[in-house]
Specification:
The protein is of the alpha+beta class and 397 residues long. It is built from five helices and 16 strands. This is BclB domain-containing protein.
């Protein structure tokens, strides 16, 4: 079955339709159409952030040409519910780009809707290709989401002043008597009285007595008793934050394929996986986001916070944070203690939604140990991609 241009002896791959007589039909793109889709997504990964950074006519034209090519490709496929909705969103994006004064805020909203519809389209054709091809498509979608700016919304109008509340019932109790005021300034000196009569002169001047000898130094007193031991301090707080680089949390196959983000001190490293062996070994491309403990102590708690910037999810998702520790002479970090599960869970993706939590812990730390904080989606979360800002803090006593 064909739905593309095969005139002039052009070679065209077949479009495969699967499903039984009573099952939903799956329209599979050909291999050449799949390759064209991958090339267009790679081009959009460069063109979209470039236009938001420099929204001039040349960059706008590049973006218009790419979305026109994508619309042409979608028109070659047999109609499906997911494909038709995707084409409507592409046309809306083209309409916004072709307006004389493109609204970047409206364009960002349309792109987020386009990414969500693109994920639905990928799921509708997931049986057509190998799992590695589906992972490639979702990795490209994740890059598009993370590289698309989200401009702040306009400040809302100030609400009207509320009505004045009713006057309270009865007279309040008399307040306590105020403290006595400060003493007033000293009055002016009175006039000098008249000089009295001179008294009679005494008989002779007395002899000055001799200076007495210096007394001996007294003995040193006994040392006082040792004071009671002071109360134990609250410990040291170590802060973590993703900074300007959003944390990217991905579950491609629930509990088996997924990546999270290492948190540093104002920066983060996405694309890190803890699945399989459960350890992370520092290497080129991962970077070092750990701090070194200068003394032995105990980690008594882990607190965390996550704020959603964008994402796609097939169901309820939950963010978790995990402490990893490596010994002084090692570059391999292993999970230690229970993970912190942030609440509430996310049912669907709402930009601006937040989750937080505090987990009491009792993890001993030796001097020289290196400590990391890793944020990801729980293994029970469905297929999902969430971008957001993350921050955490640990307490060591």
């Amino acid at each position: 079955m064909k739905h593309n241009d095969c005139s002039d002896n052009n070679h065209c791959d077949s479009i495969i339709i699967t499903g039984g007589c009573c099952e939903p039909k799956v329209v599979c793109p050909s291999n050449s159409q799949l390759n064209e889709l991958i090339n267009l997504l790679n081009a959009l990964i460069i063109a979209i952030p470039t236009f938001f950074a420099t929204p001039n006519a040349a960059n706008k034209l590049i973006l218009i040409n790419l979305f026109n090519q994508l619309l042409d490709l979608l028109n070659l496929l047999l109609p499906t519910t997911e494909g038709d909705y995707l084409k409507q969103l592409v046309q809306s994006i083209l309409n916004e780009l072709q307006s004389p004064n493109t609204d970047l805020g409206q364009l960002a909203v349309l792109l987020q809707q386009f990414y969500s519809a693109l994920a639905d389209f990928f799921f509708s054709i997931q049986t057509c290709f190998a799992p590695s091809t589906l992972r490639l498509l979702f990795n490209l979608l994740t890059q598009l989401i993370s590289l698309t700016p989200i401009p702040p919304g306009a400040t809302g109008a100030t609400g009207a002043t509320g009505a004045t509340g009713a006057t309270g019932v009865g007279t309040g109790t008399t307040g306590a008597t105020g403290a006595t005021g400060a003493t007033g300034a000293t009055g002016a000196t009175g006039a000098t009285g008249a000089t009295g009569a001179t008294g009679a002169t005494g008989v002779g001047t007395g002899t000055t007595g001799a200076t007495g000898a210096t007394g001996a130094t007294g003995a040193t007193g006994a040392t006082g008793a040792t004071g009671a031991t002071g109360a134990t301090g609250g410990g040291a707080i170590i802060p973590y934050a993703s900074g300007t680089t959003p944390a990217v949390l991905v579950n491609l196959v629930a509990g088996t394929i997924g990546t999270g983000t290492l948190l540093g001190f104002g920066f983060s490293q996405p694309g890190i996986s803890l699945l399989g062996g459960g350890d992370i070994t520092l290497a080129a491309g991962i970077g070092d986001y750990a701090f070194v403990a200068p003394r032995a102590g105990t980690i008594t708690s882990l607190a965390g916070f996550f704020s959603v910037l964008a994402g796609v999810s097939l169901g309820t998702t939950q963010v978790q944070m995990q402490i990893l520790i490596a010994s002084a002479a090692s570059n391999t970090f292993s999970p230690v203690g229970a993970p912190l599960l942030l609440l509430p869970t996310f049912v669907g993706i709402v930009v601006g939604a937040t989750a937080s939590g505090i987990e009491p812990l009792n993890i001993p730390v030796a001097a020289g140990d290196k400590i990391l904080v890793y944020v990801s989606l729980t293994g029970a979360s469905p297929i999902a991609t969430i971008d957001g800002f993350a921050s955490a803090g640990i307490n060591i006593v």
